[in-house]
Amino acid sequence: MINMIEVKTSKLSDGELNRGVFATCDISKGELIHQAPVIPYPNAEHVHIEKTLLADYAFEYGKNHTALLLGYGMLFNHSYQPNATYEINFPNHTFDFYAYRDIKAGEEILINYNGDVDDDEPLWFDKEKEDSDKK
């Protein structure tokens, strides 16, 4: 089985590591790209994670939990015009990433961090940028 994705340097990520997930081959719309296992924890414990870099990588996991994703899960970068989406697979304890449209080999795979491909609500880093621009 060919590995459809790889981690490479991303021009979109402005973090220290500048990583993103890229297609190694053409991926068809609707195709499963990756199943990322989760480490869930109760929302009440998130206050501890918020003190660390991991806070930027945590995902909502149902009503009462947050999760850290393993595999490539935490390395997908954000776009308000994503080429991939994800679904939470609670029985499997995974986040399942699917191609939202056809993706070409070499293209960075992007998801909307809001969870819905059409949700353009500003995210925490957009709000922080807006606040710093006002100063």
Automatic annotation (TrEMBL):
Could you list this entry's UniProt keywords, alphabetically sorted.
Methyltransferase, Transferase
Quote the CDD domains the UniProt record gives: SET_SpSet7-like
Indicate the segments forming the SET domain, all copies. 3-114
Name one molecular function that GO assigns to this entry: histone H3K37 methyltransferase activity
Which domain of life does this protein belong to? Bacteria
Q: Name one GO biological process term.
A: methylation
Q: Answer whether the UniProt record assigns the keyword Methyltransferase to this protein.
A: yes
Matches recorded under Pfam families:
SET
Looking at the keywords, is Transferase present?
Answer: yes
Q: What is this protein called?
A: SET domain-containing protein-lysine N-methyltransferase
Q: Which organism is it from?
A: Neobacillus cucumis
